[in-house]
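We were asked to recover a plausible sequence for a given structure. The inputs and outputs are reproduced exactly as logged, with field labels preserved.

PROBLEM: sequence recovery
POSITIONS: 279
GIVEN STRUCTURE:
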């Protein structure tokens, strides 16, 4: 039987690195995150590959100042490399999200999708249960992955709602008496599906409980954070999440570069087959 030469060091290193990441679960001791992150998007961007990012959801996305900060973030760090599209629509829920996913998102061939609909699913008038809400999330995730198995999907839980006297005809809080249950459902769904999750809700809820007057000023109409509030709280949370993903991607690339240098310094030795004794 002929003898096989050992595999190149880089191949061995790449496999070892992949196994380490899986087994270690991204341990903090290794400088890798423990949470699911859209690292693939940043690996592509760090390598210079053009990328498409789509934001999909309700008015909290359609008009949220955080999306403008997100667009500026891509241009700052990866100028000319990111096509950013805001495909959200005011007043919509996850049922609409499922129905319009192909036209508004899938046809754009996204590499990264940020999605939120739980806040409007919770409105009683839509008749969507928490179970149906998360089932719609699962349907959208499956459809996105069917088109592109490598797509990265980031789930977001947004802010609480309240009945603001500034908009007396709207009862955003009363219309959503079980909003927390919908955020819980999306949180659980994201974890079950292994999707990256950005939890804005706990941050907003803490402000609402501990600084109620400030919260009312930050969300003056009862559901939509003001421009500055959206930047200071929603965007700040998302930016921190993205920076963790960017750091993880750079860490991975650094390890791969170290492996390549080691391979160059220690090239594989050729293996000479043992002579075969002739009868």
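RECOVERED SEQUENCE:
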């Amino acid at each position: 039987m002929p003898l096989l030469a050992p595999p190149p060091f880089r191949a061995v290193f790449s496999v070892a690195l992949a196994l380490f990441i899986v087994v270690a679960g991204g341990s903090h001791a290794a400088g890798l995150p423990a949470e699911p992150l859209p690292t693939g998007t940043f690996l592509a961007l760090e390598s210079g590959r053009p990328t498409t990012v789509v934001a999909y959801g309700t008015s909290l996305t359609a008009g949220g100042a955080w999306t403008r900060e997100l667009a500026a973030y891509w241009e700052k760090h990866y100028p000319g490399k990111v096509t950013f599209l805001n495909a959200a629509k005011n007043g919509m829920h996850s049922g609409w999200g499922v129905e319009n996913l192909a036209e508004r998102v899938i046809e754009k061939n996204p590499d990264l999708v940020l999605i939120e609909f739980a806040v409007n699913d919770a409105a009683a008038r839509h008749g969507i249960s928490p179970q149906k809400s998360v089932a719609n999330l699962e349907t959208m995730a499956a459809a996105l992955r069917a088109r592109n198995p490598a797509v990265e999907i980031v789930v977001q839980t947004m802010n609480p709602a309240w009945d603001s006297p500034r908009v007396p005809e709207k009862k955003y809080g009363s219309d959503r008496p079980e909003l927390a249950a919908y955020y819980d459902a999306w949180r659980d769904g994201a974890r079950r599906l292994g999707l990256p999750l950005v939890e804005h809700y706990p941050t907003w809820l803490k402000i609402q409980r501990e600084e109620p007057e400030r919260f009312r000023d930050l969300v003056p109409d009862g559901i939509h954070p003001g421009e500055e509030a959206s930047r200071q709280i929603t965007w700040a949370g998302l930016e921190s999440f993205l920076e963790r993903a960017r750091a993880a991607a750079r860490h991975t690339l650094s390890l791969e570069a170290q492996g390549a240098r080691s391979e160059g310094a220690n090239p594989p030795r050729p293996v000479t087959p043992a002579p075969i004794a002739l009868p």
